[in-house]
Amino acid sequence: MGALTPRPIFRPVMARRRRRGWFAPFLSGRKAKAMDRTTLRQVLLEQLAQVTGENRTGLEEGLSLRDGLGLDSVDLVFLVVNIQGMLGIELKSDELEKTEKVGDLLDLIQFKLAALRPAA
Q1: Which of 35, 75, 99, 116 could lock 104 by a disulfide, CB 3.0 to 4.6 Å apart?
Q2: Does 60 map to a domain?
Q3: Which domain range does residue 39 map to?
Q4: How far apart are the C-alpha atoms of 5 and 46, rounded to whole Å?
Q5: For the domain that residue 53 is a member of, what is the CATH number?
């Protein structure tokens, strides 16, 4: 008998999830459309709760990601990966280096979502 090669069971599922976005019950399409600032702030709050385990009631735009929210580099990576998967956008490391505050991150996400919209 020949050696059995393992099948990649989870790979097609993960590829399908990546195309659709992770989990967003309020998003109707395959990718996120332009969102208002309040909705983006709510998405960020939910993702922060998943990454840190702390439930926050609100986010101020001027709050520092590292000092104000207490995120270390690993937390930031998990947060960015979750946001990318959920919204179907790509946040590059050179763009993320410039983000120090919550408002900067929300601006970057809004810019990326606006770039996904087809030109009218």
Answers
A1: 99
A2: yes
A3: 32-116
A4: 40
A5: 1.10.1200.10
| Length of the chain as a residue count | 120
- 1 within some domain: no
Burial label for 76, CB within 10 Å (0-12, 13-18, 19+), is middle
> pLDDT digit string (tens) for 46-91?
999 999 888 888 889 999 999 999 999 999 999 999 999 999 999 9
Quick: pLDDT tens for 5-61.
655 554 444 444 444 444 444 444 444 556 789 999 999 999 999 998 888 888 899
Number of domains present in the structure of the chain: 1
26 located within any domain: no
Of 17, 11, 9, 10, nearest to 85 (Cα)? 17
